From TrEMBL:
InterPro entries per record: Serpin_dom, Serpin_fam, Serpin_sf, Serpin_sf_1, Serpin_sf_2
Keyword field: Protease inhibitor, Serine protease inhibitor, Signal
Signal peptide: 1-18
PANTHER family: GH21475P-RELATED, SERINE PROTEASE INHIBITOR, SERPIN
Family named by the database record: Belongs to the serpin family.
Gene3D superfamilies: Alpha-1-antitrypsin, domain 1 (2.30.39.10), Antithrombin, subunit I, domain 2 (3.30.497.10)
GO MF terms held by the record: serine-type endopeptidase inhibitor activity
Name recorded for this polypeptide: Serpin-Z10-like
């Protein structure tokens, strides 16, 4: 009972602060790598970083979408970061496979650390944008961590390590994990020496608010045009950044978040047939670059309508990684022998994500005269509005690197 109380207190403090780490006892199994503090990468690596994370986002997006029936939210960059932490302590063959999946350079630790610093500094909570991301390796009590691996993980803020009585009090440990993560976790498996836990929550203020007075119950349609149910539609008339993606015949909309516009929300709907499944199958990292490059500010106000929603998902990341051909870290204890002694050998990898979209913003839309026939300055295929009243994709990006912090699909209306 005492150890369980310690687990609760330590884990809760980690979830609140994200800054506490375990003391490390030296281990005989050490894989030496460069000290991140000694690195100095003298080239522009932002595009390489974006390509690496976009590729992983799209690789993981497809199995996540299929297994969630195309109604989900998750954080690909958070999963990418945790897998990178495991890769840094994996045996050579597993490490090579993981680095390949993550598009990380196996022989350039300094460039990897530069990528890590970018990835872990994207989601920064503020008074206006509340993003809380916690990445935890919960490992069995009595396990000795490899100090070299732990040093890399700590200096690059990849994840926190917390101990728990997994082997001798698994039931109580499981209940405490569910409480800490605020999740049901039906697939939680404690048969190994550790579990990987990931939570991310978003609730932010738009830079320009939607008008509360015009939120209305509106129909939500299937790709075939049938009414699936209804949603609370947030509406605003304003100038907005939009783009047309010819390869998937889709229109995209970008809305800024926060007073400094540090974050951007990008929405995408298919023109005509609104089925997003072919888009998920066809999109590539180059498509993401095209989306960002295509965005242009409209010359006149356009009509924007987005459903108000709270969407939450629990993703069994272990299953997603197995879909991507990654099995060793869950089936072979030796694959994680450079993390700890005995090996970390995780039996579960779970992510719980919650995304809140409401009408609240910092500023009201500027009053402009309605000039309905004036050119929008946008591609003619975009029309004069963006109405998300059928299945659509959306994601949260930071403006500095356009890292995809959270990705989602909305296909199930609030009211059925």
């Amino acid at each position: 009972m005492q150890t369980l109380i310690i687990l609760c207190l330590v884990a809760c403090s980690v979830l609140i602060s994200g800054q506490q780490h375990l003391p490390v006892v030296p281990s005989s199994s050490i894989q030496y790598t460069s000290d991140p503090g000694l690195c100095n990468v003298n080239r522009d690596y932002i595009r390489d970083y974006r390509s690496a994370t976009y590729d992983f986002c799209l690789f993981s997006l497809r199995p996540v979408a299929v297994r969630s029936n195309f109604n989900f939210v998750y954080s690909p960059i958070s999963i990418w970061t945790i897998v990178a932490a495991i890769a840094e302590g994996a045996d050579p063959l597993t490490q090579q496979k993981l680095f390949q999946l993550l598009h990380l350079p196996p022989h350039d630790p300094c460039l990897r650390y530069a990528f890590y610093q970018l990835a872990t500094s994207r989601a920064i909570p503020s008074n206006e944008v509340n993003i809380r991301n916690n990445r935890i390796l919960l490992i069995n009590e009595g396990t000795t961590l490899n100090p070299t691996w732990h040093d890399i993980v700590v200096k690059n803020s990849l994840l926190d390590v917390v101990t728990a009585p997994i082997k001798y009090n698994s039931v109580a440990t499981a209940n405490e994990i569910k409480r800490i993560m605020s999740a049901r976790l039906p697939t939680l498996d404690l048969s190994g020496n550790s579990v990987l836990l990931d939570t991310i929550d978003y609730n932010g203020l738009w830079t320009t608010a939607f008008a509360d007075a015009v939120i209305e119950r509106a129909p939500f349609y299937s790709p075939q045009g049938e009414v699936l149910g209804s949603v609370d539609m947030m509406r605003v008339r304003r100038r907005a950044r939009m783009g047309y993606i010819k390869a998937v015949n889709a229109k995209v909309l970008e809305l800024s978040v926060g007073s400094d516009e540090r974050y951007r929300m990008i929405f995408g709907v298919v023109i005509g047939n609104a089925d997003i499944k072919p888009v998920v199958a066809a999109v590539t990292s180059e498509t993401v670059f095209q989306v960002i490059d295509s965005l242009r500010e409209s010359a006149v106000p356009i009509d924007v309508a987005i459903p108000r929603m709270v969407i939450s998902s629990e993703i069994d990341v272990r299953v997603i990684l197995k879909d991507l051909g990654i099995t060793e870290i869950f089936t072979d204890p030796a694959a994680t022998r450079y993390i700890s002694d005995p090996p970390a050998f995780p039996s579960s990898f779970l992510q719980r994500t919650t995304f809140v979209l409401n009408s609240t913003g910092l500023y009201t839309p500027p009053q402009e005269p309605d000039i309905y026939n004036a050119p929008t300055g946008l591609d003619l295929a975009l029309g004069r509005d963006f109405i998300a009243d059928r299945p659509f994709l959306f994601g949260l990006f930071d403006v500095e690197t356009y890292t995809c912090i959270m990705a989602a699909a909305y296909t199930s209306p609030t009211y059925i």
